[in-house]
Amino acid sequence: NGSQQDLFQILKDHGMNAIRLRAWVNPSGGWSDTNDMLYLAGRASNAGMDIMLTIHYSDSWADPGQQNKPSAWSGYSTQELYTAVYNYTHDIISTMQSNGVTPKWVQVGNETNNGMLWENGRATTSMQTYAWLVNSGHNAVKDVNSNIQTIVHLANGNDNGLYQWNIGGIISEGANFDIIGMSLYPEPSTWQGLANDCLANMQDMKSRYGKEVMICEIGMRQDEPETTRDFIADMIAKTRSANGLGVFYWEPQVYDGWKGYGKGAWQENGQPSVAMDAFLDNGSVSAQYVQFRNRGTSLYLDGMGRTTNGDAAGQWSNTSHPNSQWELVSQGSNYYQLQNVGTGLLLDGMGNSNNGADVGQWSNTTSYNSHWELLQFSGNFYQLRNRSTGLFLDGMGRTANGDDCGQWANTTHEIG
Questions:
Q1: Cα(382)–Cα(251) distance, rounded to whole angstroms?
Q2: Annotation says 224 is catalytic
């Protein structure tokens, strides 16, 4: 409304409940050094937010293209680097804790696709050195506070091969850590396929290595805020369906060009864009997450735990299971995609235009088969009409748990 507010309050009012901060060892200008990080951590803590600390182990950005040692460590041997990582990590976590801002999570390195602290810790050169550098940071964190969770964070969250090579490699070399973190930066034309690949990667990492997963960074184009909102909402839903720990957006509160970054979630007038609305979540089965109860059968629309494209959607009596929860993702003009929280698939008309045809589920797609028009029938009852088939979602009078849903031409029967 044109009134200035503190940034942390704006973020909190838009659904953010955690802040991710970085630490550089000895940066020029002081930005992101320990004191600067502590100041921001204090503000985040005062706003009631959880804190993730991302330690780059560098004097500047560390990412897949650069993992440069701090200048003060440039001549260190590998053994001296193990000690330096341990001491620096122990010191910074101890300092945070003594200032009353204990982080909930600590990243040991940032986007370490090919290791860290090059050349010694380059993974393609020595996976063991990389693994033991991770252990140095992990052990330091746990020695200060065993409740803090440690993260190994890679970019390209859609690339399962990378994650098997990197995460599997350091685990085989004895690395200890708690969480696998991921980044994903698609374009508006590619986000749906990459988001699906990222979901599959999260599920595989949890199953393969028994680790928790988290989305540490996502971002998309600032000049397409509606599409970016849909991407964020979809990643939140997918992370929930994989039982992931959370989603961080990098970096929402940037505007005015910000050195050509172009992936913020802010407007040039200094206010959040609609992309930020994706974080207005308000709980599991509310706002974005809803249940659909059929008026005729009294059963709820259910994904049935079916995860193969083309599987039918069913019905089940009331339950708090994610299979009965759906996210409405706006497609404009009162059309929505309905994404099942349990299966991650979208409710789909399957192109079936015959009365009684099954309603299926399908991975994310731009097809109108996955678009449903929400039409108010009466009171709190609605009809859902498929944009492609023109038929309405129908309980078909089936009243047994597990019965399939169908589609039917317009009718005044109590199917809402």
A1: 38
A2: no
- Give the C-alpha separation, 333 to 314, whole Å: 27
Q: Give the percent of the chain with pLDDT over 90.
A: 68
Residue range 267-287, pLDDT digits in tens: 888 788 989 888 886 433 334
Q: Using one digit for the tens of pLDDT, what is the confidence trace for 197-238?
A: 999 999 999 999 999 999 999 999 999 999 999 999 899 989
Element at 226 (helix H, strand E): helix 225-241
DSSP string covering 62-131? -BTTB-BPPGGGTT--HHHHHHHHHHHHHHHHHHHHHTT---SEEEESSS-BTBSSBTTTBTTT-HHHHH
Can you read off the two tokens belonging to residue 73?
């460590």
SS3 242: coil
Taking the C-alpha atoms of residue 46 and residue 348, their distance in angstroms, rounded to an integer, is 45
pLDDT exceeds 70 at position 257: no
Nearest to 253 by CA among 280, 233, 272, 227: 272
Whether 111 is catalytic is yes
Q: Which of 217, 224, 373, 414 is catalytic?
A: 217
Element (DSSP H or E) covering residue 353? none
pLDDT tens, residue by residue, 284-296: 333 457 889 998 8
Kindly report the pTM of this predicted structure.
0.71
156 within 8 A of 196, measured Cβ to Cβ = no
Half-sphere exposure of 106 (CA within 13 A, CB side): 31
Q: What is the DSSP letter of 144?
A: H
Strands 314-316 and 300-302: antiparallel
- Residue for token digits 């190994």? 152
- Of these residues, 111, 224, 251, 268, which one is catalytic? 111
**pLDDT at position 54 over 70:** yes
